[in-house]
Amino acid sequence: MKRFKRLMRSVAVVAALSVVALMGVAQAEEGTVKATASWEGQGYAFPVGEDQVYMVAVYAGVMFVDDGKGSLDAASIVCPGTIDGNLAKGTKTGDGRCVITDRDGDRVFARFTCSGDLQGCRGPFTIVGGTGKFAGITGEGEMISRIQARQLTMYAGVDDVQQQGAGLAIWPALHYKIPDTAK
């Protein structure tokens, strides 16, 4: 009988600890963070009209959350995108997608659009989903980016230019919500 009582207590303790552990995993999370990412980019710019250029590029770097807390601090970020530039006016518009991957390999997927001058671009950044602990994540905020061309390579007989550059992206107030996965 004593053995049975001990076994039942052990089962109850394990069950209670399991419930507590699962509550921590399933709990909803919501917040607003300020984040910055330094990145490098590489792309190709094509003349598509008089004083018009169309660029296809990929930017990659590391995202840092200002207080150094949370899963996205020191996460990798990769953003493929396109830019349509008006050289006569010195303006551009762009759009793209981003994949943010944390240390555990869980990902956040986002989209952005922006407009600005030839060195900078700003616009909405929308979180559209994720994997693992970020499953069901949504959110939005403004993204401000700056890029400086470091190297331009032109090819003989071809009108495109390969560009390599470095830059910075800032999210002054990125709001996110991760749903309760126990629902």
Can you tell me about this structure?
It is a single chain. By secondary structure, the chain is mainly β. It is built from one helix and eight strands, in the order H-E-E-E-E-E-E-E-E. It is elongated, with a radius of gyration of 23 Å.
Layout of secondary structure:
Elements: H1 2-26, E1 29-49, E2 52-65, E3 75-86, E4 91-101, E5 107-117, E6 120-130, E7 138-154, E8 161-178
Antiparallel strand pairs: 1-2, 1-8, 2-3, 3-4, 4-5, 5-6, 6-7, 7-8
The gross shape turns out to be elongated
Total number of strands: 8
Task: Please estimate the helix content.
Answer: 10-25%
- Uncertain runs are 3-26
* SSE pattern, N- to C-terminal: HEEEEEEEE
Number of contiguous helices: 1
Structural class label: mainly beta
User: Strand share of the residues?
Assistant: over 45%
Cross-sheet strand order for the largest sheet = 1-2-3-4-5-6-7-8
Distance between the termini: 39 Å
Mean pLDDT: 82
Major beta sheet summary: 8 strands, antiparallel, barrel
Keywords:
183 residues; 63% strand; 14% helix
Summarize the structure.
It is built from one helix and eight strands. It has one helix spanning 2-26; strands spanning 29-49, 52-65, 75-86, 91-101, 107-117, 120-130, 138-154, 161-178. Strands 1-2-3-4-5-6-7-8 form an eight-stranded antiparallel barrel.
